[in-house]
TrEMBL record:
Residues 25-167 form the Prohead serine protease domain. It comes from Cereibacter azotoformans. The keyword Hydrolase applies. InterPro entries: Peptidase_S78_dom (IPR054613), Prohead_protease (IPR006433). SUPFAM superfamilies: Herpes virus serine proteinase, assemblin (SSF50789). Keywords: Hydrolase, Protease, Viral release from host cell. It comes from the Bacteria. This is Prohead peptidase. GO terms for biological process: proteolysis. Signal peptide: none annotated.
Amino acid sequence: MRMRDEFGAPERKFHRPETGLVLSEGSMIVGYASIFGRPDHGGDVVARNAYAASLEAMRLQGRRVKMLWQHDPAEVIGVWDEVHEDETGLWVKGRILTEIGRGREAAALIAAGAIDGLSIGYRTVRSERDAKGHRVLAEIELWEVSLVTFPMLPEARVAAKGEDHDELDWHDIAELFEDARQSLSGV
């Protein structure tokens, strides 16, 4: 059974790298933003190659995955120089821009061990249910990878699942991300 989010509402998955987010040379960070094959607390599993089409489309359009602070589109804090899938999951390597205030704060918080989480912002393009009832995310349109304060658990997890949000808020957020996507893609 294939399902599609008919509103294109933004989704987020938090992941706390088991080995911690690595900060080197004051601003370089590396880690996994997503791990394949592990059910999260919301019952979702990211399949291998789920990001492939999105990453290829971005490459062909000369775009990059955005590095945000706490999923805030107004708080770009760096650049992801490398984003790719490997056998484990979605691996990222980037630079926090310490020339900007929030970038300096983020680098200091990571260095102190106060921040160690990564979270993806995306839209589910294609998913299906497995025999255990998990939603298997087969294709994901990746928008951004954020540094976050509360990465829930070492496993990936949907951020707002189970929280009480009214529909208008989600539509407003979806519209904001869609406007940003169109702006970035020149549509």
